[in-house]
Amino acid sequence: MLSENITINSAGHLCFAGHDVCELAQRFGTPLYLMDEGRIRENCRVYLNAFRKNFGENAMPAYASKAASFRRIYEIMREEGMGIDVVSSGEIFTAVKAGFPMEKSMFHSNNKTDADIRYAISCGVGCFVVDGEDELLRLEQIAAEQGHTQRILLRLTPGIDPHTYEAINTGRVDSKFGTAIETGQAMPLIRLALEQKHIELAGFHCHVGSQVFEEDVFQRTANIMVGFMAEVRDELGFTAKILNLGGGYGVRYVESDPAADIGARIGEVAEHIRAVAQKHDFPMPFIVMEPGRSIVADAGMTVYQVGAVKRIPGYKNYVSIDGGMGDNPRYALYGAKYTVLSGNRALEEADFPCDLVGRCCESGDIIQPEILLPSATCRDDIVCVCTTGAYNYSMASNYNRVPRPPIVMLRDHDAYVAVRRETLEDIAALDV
After folding, report:
1. C-alpha dist (Å) from residue 176 to 135, 173, 180, 228, 326
2. Annotated catalytic sites, by residue?
3. Which residues are registered as beta bridge partners of 228?
4. pTM, two decimal places
């Protein structure tokens, strides 16, 4: 199986985290987001243990909560000792509601509004990741009005191509995020930040993209960033204490994706950063990473019910489900790949080529093209899409006024609702 938390029981039903998906579908309805709580905690501990081993006891990976943001996830991050990064007032509000210690949070975004800035300061956000000059000067103004000194990292773009999806490649010089080193714009921004009276510059942030498998991506990034940190020290007399390398490692969506040994990779990155720092006679910085996808993706599965099977002889076949791009827009957005499995025919041969499509009135409402399901697949069957814990619920919409699915968390002998299913009343609740 794609992941060890996916199995098949004696009834021929697919199981996730030890739970029969058909029984869960009957109990909670479909479409249904499932989240394996044990897997989330295990993934957190992989990063935490690797960071403590390689960077010291105080090292802190920060969960990129845009991957999946709801109250229970922040409670788990708090319980596991993770930091978080947040990108909106909504994520900050949810984390606060969960009792997360906001001094362990980092606030991203390339366009923080004045309301965002004021709210984040009032909630005690530990560190702002400042995207550019406009934000820097407005943050100084608002912090001064509130008699507050705000700790920040400056987001810089190192000009690295991680060979990932174009839509999630964020480290290039022409990215909408951050300030480029290569163009000479970064040094003046750092000088300006150091001149502000209500800003404490702690270091630098960079993010080269998501779904990273190339083993040298973070090493190449460290070469540029640590070298530039040494230049800043020599030119401005400022020694940055923190280097945030951004996103975590890739996950397996399909069998052809490699499996990343995260602990080993972090060890290699740590060794490389130490060598680069020594080369530049620069003190080893406090390292931060922001894994999101690799914390929650393989902890997720989406369960659907088949509504129709359409065969067009000589052309193609469609299996239509009761969800679609409203609960998973990633294929429609950038052609994301997924593994699709039958829930109730898991032991039958998958020999029926088809496209898995959704219920929305949209030709582009495709979950995954060119898959194989059992030829007996029919109405009322259960179909499961694997590795949907990241960027599925968080990117979901009410397109066609379809309510969003619930999130059911799975533990060893327990399944509980973390986010309830939306109702038709919810859909119209804001209408006036």
Report:
1. 14, 9, 10, 21, 26
2. 361
3. none
4. 0.94
